[in-house]
Protein backbone atom coordinates (compact mmCIF):
# COMPACT_ATOMS: atom_id res chain seq x y z
CA UNK A 1 0.00 0.00 0.00
CA UNK A 2 1.37 3.37 -1.05
CA UNK A 3 0.87 6.08 1.57
CA UNK A 4 2.61 8.75 -0.51
CA UNK A 5 1.09 11.14 -3.00
CA UNK A 6 -2.59 11.89 -3.28
CA UNK A 7 -5.63 9.80 -2.43
CA UNK A 8 -8.96 9.55 -4.19
CA UNK A 9 -12.02 9.68 -1.95
CA UNK A 10 -15.04 8.11 -3.62
CA UNK A 11 -18.09 9.73 -2.06
CA UNK A 12 -20.70 12.37 -2.61
CA UNK A 13 -20.52 15.85 -1.12
CA UNK A 14 -23.61 15.15 0.97
CA UNK A 15 -22.68 11.71 2.31
CA UNK A 16 -22.42 12.05 6.12
CA UNK A 17 -19.69 9.43 6.38
CA UNK A 18 -17.92 11.00 3.42
CA UNK A 19 -18.07 14.28 5.31
CA UNK A 20 -16.59 12.55 8.33
CA UNK A 21 -13.60 11.44 6.25
CA UNK A 22 -13.25 14.87 4.65
CA UNK A 23 -13.43 16.71 7.98
CA UNK A 24 -10.87 14.33 9.48
CA UNK A 25 -8.55 14.99 6.54
CA UNK A 26 -8.90 18.73 7.14
CA UNK A 27 -8.22 18.42 10.86
CA UNK A 28 -5.17 16.26 10.15
CA UNK A 29 -3.81 18.71 7.59
CA UNK A 30 -4.23 16.31 4.67
CA UNK A 31 -7.03 17.99 2.73
CA UNK A 32 -4.70 18.93 -0.12
CA UNK A 33 -3.85 15.24 -0.60
CA UNK A 34 -7.44 14.02 -0.84
CA UNK A 35 -9.24 14.37 -4.16
CA UNK A 36 -13.02 13.96 -4.09
CA UNK A 37 -14.45 11.88 -6.94
CA UNK A 38 -18.22 11.46 -7.00
CA UNK A 39 -19.60 7.97 -6.46
CA UNK A 40 -23.00 6.70 -7.54
CA UNK A 41 -23.71 3.59 -5.49
CA UNK A 42 -26.92 2.95 -7.45
CA UNK A 43 -25.08 2.73 -10.79
CA UNK A 44 -23.90 -0.83 -11.40
CA UNK A 45 -21.31 0.53 -13.82
CA UNK A 46 -19.69 2.80 -11.23
CA UNK A 47 -16.22 1.59 -10.25
CA UNK A 48 -17.14 2.02 -6.56
CA UNK A 49 -18.51 -1.54 -6.74
CA UNK A 50 -15.09 -2.83 -7.79
CA UNK A 51 -13.19 -0.64 -5.34
CA UNK A 52 -15.45 -1.72 -2.47
CA UNK A 53 -17.34 -4.95 -3.23
CA UNK A 54 -20.09 -3.79 -0.86
CA UNK A 55 -20.67 -0.82 -3.18
CA UNK A 56 -20.63 1.56 -0.23
CA UNK A 57 -19.07 4.96 0.20
CA UNK A 58 -16.84 6.50 1.27
CA UNK A 59 -13.98 4.53 -0.16
CA UNK A 60 -10.42 5.88 -0.22
CA UNK A 61 -8.13 4.74 -3.04
CA UNK A 62 -4.36 5.14 -2.72
CA UNK A 63 -1.97 5.95 -5.57
CA UNK A 64 -1.28 2.26 -6.18
CA UNK A 65 -5.00 1.43 -6.35
CA UNK A 66 -5.41 -0.01 -2.86
CA UNK A 67 -8.91 0.60 -1.50
CA UNK A 68 -9.51 1.57 2.14
CA UNK A 69 -13.00 1.45 3.67
CA UNK A 70 -15.24 2.11 5.67
CA UNK A 71 -15.14 5.67 7.08
CA UNK A 72 -13.64 4.63 10.43
CA UNK A 73 -10.83 2.72 8.72
CA UNK A 74 -10.27 5.66 6.36
CA UNK A 75 -9.91 8.03 9.33
CA UNK A 76 -7.53 5.60 11.03
CA UNK A 77 -5.49 5.38 7.81
CA UNK A 78 -5.38 9.16 7.41
CA UNK A 79 -4.17 9.58 10.98
CA UNK A 80 -1.45 7.00 10.28
CA UNK A 81 -0.42 8.93 7.17
CA UNK A 82 -0.33 12.19 9.14
CA UNK A 83 2.13 10.67 11.63
CA UNK A 84 0.20 12.14 14.56
CA UNK A 85 -2.24 11.05 17.24
CA UNK A 86 -4.34 14.16 16.86
CA UNK A 87 -7.71 12.42 16.61
CA UNK A 88 -7.12 9.65 19.16
CA UNK A 89 -4.20 7.89 20.83
CA UNK A 90 -2.55 4.91 19.15
CA UNK A 91 -3.01 2.82 22.30
CA UNK A 92 -4.31 2.92 25.84
CA UNK A 93 -7.64 3.30 27.58
CA UNK A 94 -8.28 6.80 26.22
CA UNK A 95 -8.12 5.45 22.67
CA UNK A 96 -11.01 3.08 23.34
CA UNK A 97 -13.02 5.71 25.20
CA UNK A 98 -12.79 8.08 22.26
CA UNK A 99 -13.47 5.42 19.65
CA UNK A 100 -16.53 4.25 21.59
CA UNK A 101 -17.97 7.76 21.75
CA UNK A 102 -17.19 8.26 18.07
CA UNK A 103 -19.07 5.06 17.21
CA UNK A 104 -22.03 6.31 19.22
CA UNK A 105 -22.10 9.41 17.03
CA UNK A 106 -21.79 7.25 13.90
CA UNK A 107 -24.75 5.23 15.16
CA UNK A 108 -26.89 8.36 15.03
CA UNK A 109 -26.20 8.54 11.29
CA UNK A 110 -26.78 4.81 10.81
CA UNK A 111 -30.18 4.96 12.51
CA UNK A 112 -31.15 8.18 10.75
CA UNK A 113 -30.26 6.68 7.38
CA UNK A 114 -32.46 3.65 8.08
CA UNK A 115 -35.35 6.00 8.84
CA UNK A 116 -34.76 7.76 5.53
CA UNK A 117 -34.46 4.48 3.60
CA UNK A 118 -37.73 3.20 5.07
CA UNK A 119 -39.56 6.06 3.40
CA UNK A 120 -37.46 5.96 0.23
CA UNK A 121 -37.70 2.24 -0.55
CA UNK A 122 -41.11 1.30 0.83
CA UNK A 123 -44.59 2.32 -0.15
CA UNK A 124 -46.54 4.08 2.61
CA UNK A 125 -48.50 0.89 3.28
CA UNK A 126 -45.25 -1.04 3.78
CA UNK A 127 -43.60 1.39 6.19
CA UNK A 128 -43.21 -0.15 9.63
CA UNK A 129 -44.02 2.31 12.42
CA UNK A 130 -42.43 0.06 15.10
CA UNK A 131 -39.25 -0.17 13.02
CA UNK A 132 -39.09 3.61 12.63
CA UNK A 133 -39.63 4.11 16.36
CA UNK A 134 -36.90 1.56 17.10
CA UNK A 135 -34.42 3.57 15.02
CA UNK A 136 -35.59 6.92 16.41
CA UNK A 137 -35.15 5.55 19.92
CA UNK A 138 -31.49 4.85 19.15
CA UNK A 139 -31.02 8.45 18.04
CA UNK A 140 -32.77 9.90 21.09
CA UNK A 141 -30.73 7.81 23.52
CA UNK A 142 -27.47 8.69 21.79
CA UNK A 143 -28.36 12.39 21.85
CA UNK A 144 -29.24 12.14 25.53
CA UNK A 145 -25.85 10.55 26.19
CA UNK A 146 -24.01 13.37 24.42
CA UNK A 147 -26.21 15.97 26.09
CA UNK A 148 -25.14 14.58 29.46
CA UNK A 149 -21.48 14.29 28.44
CA UNK A 150 -20.82 16.91 25.77
CA UNK A 151 -17.31 16.85 24.28
CA UNK A 152 -14.91 19.72 24.84
CA UNK A 153 -15.43 21.88 21.77
CA UNK A 154 -11.83 23.09 21.98
CA UNK A 155 -10.50 19.53 21.58
CA UNK A 156 -10.86 18.67 17.92
CA UNK A 157 -10.62 14.89 17.97
CA UNK A 158 -12.45 11.88 16.56
CA UNK A 159 -15.40 12.41 18.90
CA UNK A 160 -15.99 16.03 17.89
CA UNK A 161 -15.53 15.20 14.20
CA UNK A 162 -18.08 12.37 14.33
CA UNK A 163 -20.55 14.26 16.52
CA UNK A 164 -20.44 17.36 14.30
CA UNK A 165 -21.14 15.24 11.21
CA UNK A 166 -23.94 13.38 12.98
CA UNK A 167 -25.69 16.55 14.11
CA UNK A 168 -25.27 18.12 10.68
CA UNK A 169 -26.88 15.00 9.21
CA UNK A 170 -29.85 15.30 11.57
CA UNK A 171 -30.16 18.99 10.76
CA UNK A 172 -30.20 18.27 7.03
CA UNK A 173 -32.30 15.09 6.86
CA UNK A 174 -34.56 15.86 9.85
CA UNK A 175 -35.63 12.35 10.88
CA UNK A 176 -36.69 13.98 14.16
CA UNK A 177 -36.43 17.29 16.00
CA UNK A 178 -33.00 16.67 17.50
CA UNK A 179 -32.80 20.13 19.08
CA UNK A 180 -35.78 19.56 21.35
CA UNK A 181 -34.48 18.67 24.79
CA UNK A 182 -30.82 19.01 23.81
CA UNK A 183 -29.88 22.68 24.34
CA UNK A 184 -26.28 21.86 25.22
CA UNK A 185 -25.80 20.08 21.90
CA UNK A 186 -27.37 22.98 20.02
CA UNK A 187 -24.90 25.36 21.63
CA UNK A 188 -22.06 22.88 21.15
CA UNK A 189 -22.61 22.60 17.40
CA UNK A 190 -22.73 26.38 17.00
CA UNK A 191 -19.51 26.72 18.98
CA UNK A 192 -17.83 23.96 16.99
CA UNK A 193 -18.81 25.52 13.68
CA UNK A 194 -17.39 28.85 14.86
CA UNK A 195 -14.09 27.26 15.94
CA UNK A 196 -13.54 24.89 13.02
CA UNK A 197 -13.56 26.54 9.55
CA UNK A 198 -13.36 23.14 7.87
CA UNK A 199 -16.84 22.31 9.15
CA UNK A 200 -18.33 24.98 6.90
CA UNK A 201 -16.23 23.81 3.95
CA UNK A 202 -17.40 20.20 4.15
CA UNK A 203 -21.02 21.39 4.08
CA UNK A 204 -20.56 22.88 0.63
CA UNK A 205 -22.39 21.17 -2.18
CA UNK A 206 -25.79 20.73 -0.54
> Beta-sheet strand percentage?
5-15%
Mean pLDDT: 94
What is the tally of helical segments?
Answer: 8
| Physical arrangement of strands within the biggest beta sheet | 2-1-3-4
Structural class given helices, strands, pairing? Answer: alpha+beta
Element-level helix/strand string: EHEHEEHHHHHH
| Count of discrete structural domains | 2
Gist of the model:
This protein has 206 residues and is an alpha+beta fold. Helices cover 54% and strands 7% of the residues.
Keywords:
8 helices, Glutathione S-transferase Yfyf (Class Pi), Chain A, domain 2, 206 residues, single chain, Glutaredoxin, 54% helix, 7% strand, globular, alpha+beta, 2 domains, four-stranded mixed β-sheet
Describe the structure.
This protein has 206 residues and is of the alpha+beta class. The chain folds into two domains: 7-82, Glutaredoxin; 93-196, Up-down Bundle (Glutathione S-transferase Yfyf (Class Pi), Chain A, domain 2). The protein has eight helices and four strands; from the N terminus they run βαβαββαααααα. The protein has a four-stranded mixed beta sheet. Strand 1 (7-11), helix 1 (16-27) and strand 2 form a beta-alpha-beta unit. Helix 4 packs antiparallel against helix 5 and helix 4 (93-121) packs parallel to helix 6. The longest helix has 29 residues, at 93-121. The two termini are 33 Å apart.
Amino acid sequence: MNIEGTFTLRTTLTSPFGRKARLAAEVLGLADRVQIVNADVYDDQDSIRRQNPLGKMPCLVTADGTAVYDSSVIVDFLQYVSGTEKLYPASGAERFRKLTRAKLADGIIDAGALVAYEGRWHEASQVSAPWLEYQLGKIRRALDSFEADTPDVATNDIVTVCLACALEFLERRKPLDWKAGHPKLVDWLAAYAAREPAYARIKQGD
